[in-house]
Amino acid sequence: MWKALTDPLRYPKPAVMTEAIANKSAKVEPVPSKKRRAKDWKGTLARIWGYLAERKLKLMLVLFMVLLTSALTLLGPYLIGIAIDDFLARDAGQMWVWFLVGLAVVYILNSVTSWLQNIWMIEIAQETVYRMRVDLFSHLHQLPIPFFGKRQQGELMSRVTNDIENVSSTLNSSAIQIFSSVLTLIGTLVVMLWLSPLLTLITFLVVPLMALGMRWITKRTGPLYRERQKNLGDLNGYIEETLSGEKIIKAFAQEQRVIGEFGERNDRIRLSGFWAQTISGFIPKLMNGLNNLSFGLIAGVGGILAIKGMITVGVIVIFVEYARQFTRPLNDLANQWNTLLSAIAGAERVFEILDESVEAEDEQHAVHVDHIEGAVVFDDVSFAYDTGDGDNTLQHISFTAEPGEMIALVGPTGAGKTTLIQLISRFYNADQGKITIDGRDIQSIKRESLRSHTAFVLQDSFLFEGTVMDNIRYGRLDATDAEVQDAARLANAHSFIERLPEGYNHRLNRDGGGISQGQRQLINIARALLADPSILVLDEATSSIDTVTEIKIQEGLQRLMEGRTSFVIAHRLNTIRAADQILVLRDGQILEKGSHDQLLDTGGFYSDLFYSQLHSSDARQA
Amino acid sequence: MTVLFSFLKKYRVAAFLALGMMLVELALELLQPFLISKIIDDGVTQKDISTVLLWGGILTGGTIIAFFAGIFGSFYAAHASQGLGYDLREAVYNKVQSFSYALFNRFSSSSLITRLTNDITQLQDMVFMGLRFMLRMPLLVVGSSVMALLVNVKLGLLLVVGIPILLFFVIIIMRKASGLFQQVQRRLDTVNSVMQENLTGMRLIRVFVRKNHERQRFEERSSNLMQGTVSALRLTETTMPFILLITNASIIAVLWYGHLDIIVGQASVGEVVAIINYAMRTMGALSAFSMIVASFSRAKASAERIQEVMFTVEDERPLDNQDQYVAGSSSVSASQSSDVYEVGVAFRQVSFHYPGTEAQVLKNIDFTARAGVTTAIMGSTGSGKSSLVQLILRLYDSDQGEIDVLDRRIQELDDHQLRGLIGYVPQEIVLFTGSIRENIAWGYEHATLEEIQEAARIAQIHDTIMNLPHGYDTLLGQRGVNLSGGQKQRISIARALVRRPAILLLDDSTSALDVRTESLLLDALRELSCTTLLITQKISSTIRADQVLLLSDGQLIAQGDHTHLLATSELYQQIYASQFGKEELEHVESVN
Fold this sequence. Notes:
The complex is a heterodimer. By secondary structure, chain A is α/β, with parallel strands linked by helices. Chain A has helices at residues 2-6, 15-25, 32-52, 56-88, 94-140, 145-150, 153-195, 197-204, 207-244, 246-251, 255-307, 313-354, 417-424, 447-452, 468-473, 481-490, 494-499, 517-530, 547-560, 596-602, 605-621; strands spanning 376-383, 394-401, 406-410, 432-437, 440-441, 454-457, 466-467, 507-508, 535-539, 565-569, 581-586, 589-594. Chain A has a six-stranded mixed beta sheet, sandwiched between helices. In chain B, strand 11 (547-552) and strand 12 form a beta hairpin. The longest helix of chain B is centred in the first third of the chain and has 50 residues, at 49-98. In chain B, helix 7 packs antiparallel against helix 11 and helix 17 packs across helix 19 (485-497). Chain B has two domains: 2-310, ABC transporter transmembrane region fold (Up-down Bundle), CATH 1.20.1560.10; 332-557, Rossmann fold. The chains are: A alpha/beta, B alpha/beta. At the A-B interface, helix 4, helix 5, helix 6, helix 7 and helix 9 of A face helix 2, helix 3, helix 5, helix 8 and helix 9 of B. Chain A: Residues 61-342 form the ABC transmembrane type-1 domain. Chain A: This is Putative ABC transporter ATP-binding protein YfiC. Chain A: The chain crosses the membrane at residues 59-84, 96-116, 175-195, 201-218, 295-320.
């Protein structure tokens, strides 16, 4: 029992909080990061405002309604004060009835305007959130591919969901609250001053205390909210990663382990969440307390003043009500300030992604090309991944592929084969040298134009949730069902698709829905074939497919690819015998180049490789 | 909501304390109008300054007590809500991890992620608000009513009479809103799933230039989410004007009848003022109502989604031994040598179909792999090779037949023991964020660096790793992007080897390796004494195996060693020809 009582008071203080406090004591030297942060907030707010401002007309309407509501809200208590002073104890006959009717009208209008302002604001807020979401999504599609290598997928997802949700729930209510709070605050102040400057002054005695308290609180909650959102992102990342790897976790019986690691992250989020919530929970208490304090002061002082005949009882009643009305917006502002902090923490994380620089813009003179013949030339191309170790992944690569040729890339794993074709797709740009297609530098062709004339079957086969038909059609969105089936036939996928419970309408899910890895590759190939490209790139596209099927696919491809250029990465050398050129890569360099027969005649690395495949069979038989 | 309360039980002390603190605050707050009416009636009207000071002082003292009660309450409320969130996340995650693989696949991962984060956050926030504001509201309403009745029964009744109408209205709204919010959460799932898909398939989307297509899909779903949210919030927002109207109507009534009563001397001005004050307080409390209705309905929807996961029951598994699930037992039997056993892996008349589908993936599979031997499994795409291997791991259970592992029926072992004996390398490579060393050690937590390096050496990846800038401490990005496919494959092989498994299952794990590396790897594997099942497409691998199983369409159509199959099996000959050319095959045949 005692433990349950004291535990909540014994949470360790997270580092971000103690740092935030420490910053205060180190006043002598203004901490530069703090300054930057404050500026960031303003920037973040300005950007949120930018989104809101896109709905100017509606926003103006809302503002107008807020104005009306605030005026009506002020009018209510004032009228009641009059009622108490002028009518309540007196018989005013008809006047009294009219007065009450007037009051009723004010009240009804108040209901209507406050309803309208909220409804409209919700629409604006949700549209804003929608646009932020879509912007973020579109922006992700413009980010350079290496970006995704560095980020955890689930952590990115958390920004689109948790962080944006955070902004969403704040915008729904806070924006209005803040406007109306400020308006009510000003309005109340004016009326109060007009009624009794002295009581107004007394009411104001608590304001400096409020300011102090708020400063103390927000200094802590700001970093805490940021920390909480970060922890949530981490947790999301971990969940995503472990759920994607669930098969491995099960197969290795590592459930307890991931549960433990999950627990650590869960713990961190509890800690930052606890402090953010506790300290922000102080705000309404502080406001309420100070509010009540001014309440007591007004009642006391007002009472004395009334006894002395300086004010009427009605004024006290009005003041008590106004004092509440005065502190209520302050209270609201304080509360909103807090949710605002948490939303800013969320928005910051969203904008952080939006600020990532996009895939380098197409060069200014980059053009759209309608047709590509498929002559690909690498002229002394070198390239290194941006890992900082300075090792060039590709060194001085030069070769020429004529339209219609099949180029095979062969070499040990890690030789740079995939990297080479990624340069053709322009996921990366060459550091040195030049790549041309049809004699045109690929940097002078718009990326999208280039990519729409090339089709890739990537190493990791990927299927979307949806039917088999949809997945193949992804290669060319306007393809007819018959064309889809033709492509599937060409990829040797038709027969197995036909045997699926619902054929082409069979739905594929995360685990593939009873589809094997090899079959996934077949679907991926069908998708690329449907695209009807000028250049086709197969990056180990058939690695999980049995060799009998593979040969059939190759035969089909050869027919299809007449007059088009293809690049094939393969380990099974037999399947690339027919290639016009074989480039043998090792350690990022072209070691040998030539047709199958030429290379065998030369008797180099390739012929070693080839014979070792054959010998591996002979060796055992002997 | 039951799940919520059962989890909240643990924090009942904190929760009640938080509520208690709130009650203290509330009581003091409710006394205020009463005290003010005292000041007016006993002090101002009687012109008695000492009475004014007395009540004023009490008012101030109470304020200070309320303030501190509020501060403490904040700690307890945060403890209860954050603790609840923590426990729920843990429980749901544990539950998900305890699912069998088949059951796990019933939920989409984006939906599970939303449930674990967003849904639980909704509940957690609701509890915090509940302990701090929400319960305060009905209490304030009840308290105000009681106080109003105490001050003046007749006038007080005018205030009280509107409350049942309000309640009725609110309950109806809440019911409808909770349904709407459930829809909102479902739509959030769909938004998340497009997002997840796009992040995973980013490269593919880029090369097919489908940005706009995807954007359209995303916009459509986001716009559904937006509309859903707007209509749900719009509904909860209607509570507000309604509440305002009702309470304001009672204020007017109080003024009207109060006026009449004062004239005839049945009520004092102070009383009317107090009741109006209570009415305004009620209204103030109710002003947060639409927010509360919204968050309560939302939390209710989220609670149901969490329950859906929590209450999912495992289908009964045949001959199950699952209850002895012991934490950390995986390492106990991991290094058993297979010399002691006779049978490594044996299938007897095993048939299997995936849950939720009808087609049989495996039909009457029957074979024995003696302990310590290497068995290669070959067959066309979709012939059931991977399914066969997954049955050994009991990722799925077979429909019929018996599977033995190391002289024992697999059902005799619990999942932990069984999987502790096995090193598995899946076809699809999964590496985790972290260093290479961590990724290999993932197979066996307590592995020393030597053991890790030893495993890497066998997997033919040691030299490559040593050439990396930070060696074994090189970090792998999301899905290990900075390594080539073949390198990742070998790391995942090392991860299986570091367990020193008695049984090694390789599901086409050498597909991205060049012939040389592959043969070095296979030779190194032969040195180990474990029972190995190797799915492969390459003749170069089957040649080295002690026996080869040839699958076609879920049936085992031939078994034997390479020479035997080459002589007898037509399919095997076809495969051989596809890899070495017809001439080579004819040459071999002529030799035989």
